[in-house]
Each structure stands twice: as structure tokens, then as C-alpha cells.
């Protein structure tokens, strides 16, 4: 079935780095842009980054630019999120989501993973 | 950066009644606005995209409207399973932002 599965979360000390991965299956992965969205405990959704279907275009939330890097490997159906210089405020569940195009060219995130928890703490 | 502001923060409505959730953009935006439902312990589920188009499998009691800076999600004839947090989202020019969410409680 169509699914996204995140991995790589865990507990990390402030200032350290951590890499997350999103594995896709059940659909034409190389046809879709993929996003990362995070959710701090008890808080709302915060968009993190997007990578285009072919990996040529990447965009980040302004507050994160420079610390996070998104990449993809269409041969392995995976999207990675490398997070550097982590801070306590990066503590969150990190979701990857598939972008899809609907009628009139409007987009939505129609498939979400189950999320992976990242805790930044000393 | 486009800021999406949702109101109210919490809404309590009786079963069978109508719920109206609002979302205001900080600047005029296209209709590339979506609404998501999130229940505790679950990832979000898309309800509406393009401001007014229901996503696949979404019941007809969910409807969206609006343009410019004002967008609305209406849930008619509320059911107990509609208890959740609802988020609006805009996506334009490779940047995305979510509203802070409206928690919908069923009385």
C-alpha cells in the first residue's frame, strides 16, 4: 500500500547532529515532491522543508535555513533530513508527507508517515 | 512569509450542529489552501485542498470556501468522530505555512 515510514529519531544533545530518513513505497516516488513537517509536544504543525520530485529544487522554513538539509535518492525511494546544531526547540515529532496535485493544479499533502520523535536534551 | 491565523482556538459544538472554522492569511494569497484534521496520536489527514475541493474519501459534510485572505472550513451535522484539531495551510512559491490549529470539541 501507499506509505511513508520515517526513521532515525532519538535523543540527541544540544549542538549535535542527527539524520532522519523517510522511506516510500506503493507509489511512483520520483513523481512527487516530499515535505518534512514537525510538531513540538502539544503544539501545532510547523513546515520544515520540501524537495522537488527530481531533487533539483529545495526550500526551507526561514527559521531553519542553514542548519537543516533535505536530500533524496530516487533509486532508493528515500528522502533524508540532516539536522545540524540542534537546539532544545527542535524537539518534535518529524513527519514526512507526500505532495500531490489535484484539480486545477492545487496541491495538498495527501500521504503522511507515522512520525519519528526527536528529543534534544542534555 | 505568510502567517496563517486560525480562529477560534477552541470550539465546542453539539452533535448534529454546524461548526465554522476560520483562517486568515497575513497577505493576499492564491487559493492553494488546504485543511487538515488531526486526531490524538495520529498524523494529519487532508480534508480540503484548493480552498474548496474535498479530498478523496472525505464526507460531504466537510466543505471549504474563501479567497484572498479569508478562508473557512464548515462541518455540517457534526458527528462525534469529528472531534479533532483542524489546521489550515497555504503553499505558494515553494513555501508553506500552517495555522496554529482549532480544537473542535463535541459536546
Overview of the structural elements:
- The complex is a heterodimer of chains A (122) and B (107).
- Helices cover 0% and strands 53% of the residues of chain A.
- With 122 residues, chain A is an all-beta fold.
- Chain A has no helices and eleven strands.
- In chain A, strands 2, 4, 5, 6, 9, 10 and 11 form a seven-stranded mixed beta sheet that branches. In chain A, strands 1-3-8-7 form a four-stranded antiparallel beta sheet, with no helix packed on it.
- The radius of gyration of chain A is 14 Å and the shape is globular.
- Chain A starts with a strand and ends with a strand.
- Chain B has 107 residues and is mainly β.
- In chain B, 0% of the residues lie in helices and 60% in strands.
- Chain B has no helices and ten strands.
- In chain B, strands 2, 4, 5, 6, 8, 9 and 10 form a seven-stranded mixed beta sheet that branches. In chain B, strands 1-3-7 form a three-stranded antiparallel beta sheet, with no helix packed on it.
- The model of chain B has no long low-confidence stretch (mean pLDDT 96).
- The A-B interface holds A 35, 37, 44-47, 50, 57, 59, 61-62, 95, 97, 102-104, 106-110, 112-115 and B 1, 31-32, 34, 36, 38, 43-46, 49-51, 53, 55-56, 85, 87, 89, 91, 94-101.
Amino acid at each position: 500500500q501507499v506509505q511513508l515510514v520515517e526513521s532515525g529519531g532519538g535523543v540527541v544533545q544540544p549542538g549535535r547532529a542527527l539524520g532522519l530518513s523517510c522511506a516510500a513505497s506503493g507509489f511512483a516516488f520520483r513523481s512527487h515532491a516530499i515535505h518534512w513537517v514537525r510538531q513540538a509536544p502539544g503544539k501545532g504543525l510547523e513546515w520544515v522543508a520540501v524537495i522537488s520530485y527530481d531533487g533539483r529544487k529545495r526550500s526551507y522554513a526561514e527559521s531553519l535555513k542553514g542548519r537543516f538539509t533535505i536530500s533524496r535518492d530516487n533509486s532508493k525511494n528515500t528522502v533524508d533530513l540532516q539536522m545540524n546544531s540542534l537546539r532544545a526547540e527542535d524537539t518534535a515529532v518529524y513527519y514526512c508527507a507526500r505532495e500531490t496535485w489535484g484539480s486545477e493544479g492545487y496541491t495538498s499533502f495527501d500521504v503522511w508517515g507515522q512520525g519519528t520523535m526527536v528529543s534534544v536534551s542534555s | 512569509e505568510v502567517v496563517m491565523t486560525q480562529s477560534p482556538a477552541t470550539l465546542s459544538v453539539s452533535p448534529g450542529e454546524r461548526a465554522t472554522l476560520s483562517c486568515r492569511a497575513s497577505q493576499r494569497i492564491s487559493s492553494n489552501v488546504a485543511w487538515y484534521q488531526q486526531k490524538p496520536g495520529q498524523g494529519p489527514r487532508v480534508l480540503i485542498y484548493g480552498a474548496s475541493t474535498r479530498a478523496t474519501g472525505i464526507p460531504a459534510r466537510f466543505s471549504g470556501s474563501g479567497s484572498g485572505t479569508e478562508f473557512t472550513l464548515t462541518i455540517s451535522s457534526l458527528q462525534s468522530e469529528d472531534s479533532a484539531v483542524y489546521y489550515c495551510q497555504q503553499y505558494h512559491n515553494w513555501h508553506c505555512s500552517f495555522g496554529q490549529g482549532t480544537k473542535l470539541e463535541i459536546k
